[in-house]
Amino acid sequence: MSMNKASRGPSHVPDPAAGNKKRQKKAGNKTIDSRTKVQQGAQEQKLVFDFNNINRAMKPLAYYAHSSMRHGNQIEVPIPYTIMGFDMPVFLSFEDIYEFINLQEISANCILVYMRYLEGLCRISGQAEKFVFVSPSLISPMRTDTEDAARRERVDNLLSFLRDAPKERRYLVPHNRGRHWVLGVIDPWEDLVLYFDPLREKKRNDFTELMNMALTDWKITTGEGIRRRRDCKTKISNRPCPLQEGSVECGYFILGFMRDIVLNGIDALESKQFYTSEDLDLIRGE
């Protein structure tokens, strides 16, 4: 399964609801790579760290990447089924690390690794039942020959997480709408999706359609459609959040949004106008 840089979003979506063990085992053996090793080797030769200007917390990782990853070696990070739909590793390449350290566009792989870190925080703090993290590769637009089939697959991927949703649980869903990351927080029992966009734009047609389809199906399968009008559209609420000033920081802001929500509650984002460089350094250090 290949996944491109954050600016382009994921290029392939796995099926998290694979019914039989043979299929799950086969899927679990696949990897998420940013590019082939041949392409990596050619690109990585051009990337050189400026160690004099690297944040102190980033230097050990930079030294490791420089000495051990320049010719194709990767860092393997297991991602649990609670995020992907099945246990599956991602592999961080030299370019992933280089971009992350230099505050460039980050890959979806980096977002997955940080989601794994936040899920661990939730377990430690007793909030594992309160928040669920959904891999962006499951719901972000993908290249396909049949647009309707692709959308149906993305809806089914999201439904596989929502099906047994208890009340009070929120689903944190990073979404790449095409060259830009946003965050959705789903509350299925309230038929509500909170929408956090670090650019504060209102371009969310694909996201809106996806949420409406998934939650409409959820209401039908859980019986909530009997209590409510099935054709009632889900409320999607644009929420205040820190504003990015540059053109490539959206991925880091989404990491910060998820962190603030988990540690301080959803309302914590309303009081922040921006993230400082120290805030972003803290996130990257984690």
TrEMBL record:
The keyword Protease applies. Residues 90-261 form the Ubiquitin-like protease family profile domain. Residues 1-39 are annotated as: Disordered. This is Ubiquitin-like protease family profile domain-containing protein. Belongs to the peptidase C48 family. Keywords: Hydrolase, Protease, Thiol protease. One of its GO terms (molecular function) is deNEDDylase activity. InterPro entries: Nep1/2-like (IPR044613), Papain-like_cys_pep_sf (IPR038765), Peptidase_C48_C (IPR003653). One of its GO terms (biological process) is protein deneddylation.
